Amino acid sequence: MRHGEVFNPEGVLYGRLPGYHLSDLGVKMAEQVADRLADRDIVYVAASPLERAQETAAPVAARHRLDVVADPRLTEAKNSFEGKTFGVGAGALRNPRYWKYLRNPFRPSWGEPYIDQVVRMSSALDAARDKARGHEAVLVSHQVVVWVVRSYVEGRRLLHDPRKRQCSLASLTTFTYEGDRVVSVGYSEPARDLLPSKAEASSRSQFGA
User: I want to staple 137 with a disulfide (CB 3.0 to 4.6 A). Which of 68, 84, 128, 145 is the partner?
Assistant: First the structure.
């Protein structure tokens, strides 16, 4: 599960920075997804240690009388632009000293290598599979790392256009296992009716993943 909407009035790329919590709408998203999952056979809930992920996981865990396990493998990808607005105008891209971070999009040069994201996310998935064999687990993480590990499992290249990620706020990307092998990947948006329109999302200045 990707976390819900974050309160970010300054419009910065918050990445792994502490202190970024769910907005009021984000809390509603988390509650709505928890309601949709209330009848599922969930026996394990884990989340990135970042506040927005922990807050998104809490209602799901509460519905099933479980604790939220903080798993650092589920955390956001490291990004050199953390704490800055990202764009050409008044954003970080206007400053030549940041251009070096854009030299290699295949790695990517601005942050944690894609393959490192795959390794740690795959490890978190495998751990959840082992904790919940015969049942279900929910892991709450962040857009880019969810999309990268999904791309790896589905055989796509890891370099991608961020605008084309299928991983909206509070969405579910489902990995189904037979034994130790992933046999299918699904996607759903239980909070779709709460998603802001593109215009609203822009005006709300929600950055990060």
Answer: 128
Counted domains in the chain = 1
Cα-Cα-Cα-Cα torsion 65, 141, 18, 31, nearest 10 degrees, comes to -50
pLDDT at 109: 64
Average pLDDT estimate for 33-47: 98
Residue 95 lies in a domain: yes
Count of residues making up the chain: 209
DSSP states along 37-51: TTTS-EEEEEE-SSH
Contact 103, 11 (CB under 8 A): no
Q: Identify which of 180, 186, 45 has the alpha carbon closest to the alpha carbon of residue 123.
A: 180
Q: Rounded to a whole number, what is the distance in angstroms from the first to the last CA of the chain?
A: 12
DSSP single-letter state for residue 186 = E
* Token pair of 204 as six digits: 């709300």
Which of these, 170, 173, 165, lies nearest to 137 by C-alpha position? 173
Q: What is the pLDDT of residues 54-73, one digit of tens each?
A: 999 999 999 999 999 999 99
Residue 39 domain-assigned? yes
Whole-number pLDDT of residue 197:
74
Residue 55 lies in a domain: yes
* HSE, side-chain direction, 13 A CA sphere, residue 197: 2
Mean pLDDT on 80-98: 62
CATH of the domain at 57: 3.40.50.1240
As given in the structure block, the two tokens for residue 122 are 């795959």
Which residues span the domain enclosing 32? 24-203
Residue 5 lies in a domain: no
Facing residues of 69 across strands?
46
